[in-house]
Amino acid sequence: MEIDVNKMQEMFAQAQQMQQAIDQRLAGSIVEAEAGGGAVKARMNGRKELLSLTIAPSAAQAAASDLTLLEDLIVAAVNACVHKADDAAKSSAAGIIGSLGLPGF
Fold first, then answer.
1. Using one digit for the tens of pLDDT, what is the confidence trace for 51-98?
2. What are φ and ψ of residue 48, in 5° steps?
3. Structural domain count, the chain
4. What pLDDT is attached to residue 44?
5. Does 21 map to a domain?
6. Listing from the earlier edge strand, what are the strands of the sheet with 50-55?
7. Residue 52: CATH number of its domain
8. For residue 81, which of 56, 54, 60 has the smallest C-alpha distance?
9. Which end of the chain is more exposed for a tag (fewer CB within 10 A), N or C?
10. In this structure, what is the dihedral angle of CA atoms 74, 75, 77, 79, given to the nearest 10 degrees?
11. Does residue 73 lie within any of the structural domains?
C-alpha cells in the first residue's frame, strides 16, 4: 500500500484549519455561572480563561465571619463555568466537524 504524501498534507492542512476555526469560536464564546443564589458570579470564555468574578456585597460582608463559605462559593461558580465552557467546546467542535460531512461524525 502506497501512501499519498500530497493527500496526507492536504488532510493535515484541513485539520489545522478546523483547529483554528474551533479556537476562534471558543475565544468568542462566553459562559457565565453563579453560586449561592447569585452571591458569586463567574464569567469565562470558551478557552477557560476567567474573565470576571463578581462577589455580591452581602456575600462579602458575610465572609467577614465565614471566609470558608465564600471560598466554596467561588470554587463552585468557577467550576460551573468550566463545565459550561467544556459543553460549549464540544458543541462547537461537533458543529465544525459535522459541517464537513465526514461519516461517523
1. 999 999 999 898 888 899 999 999 999 999 999 999 888 887 776 666
2. 65, 35
3. 1
4. 95
5. no
6. 30-35, 40-45, 50-55
7. 3.30.1310.10
8. 54
9. N
10. 160
11. yes
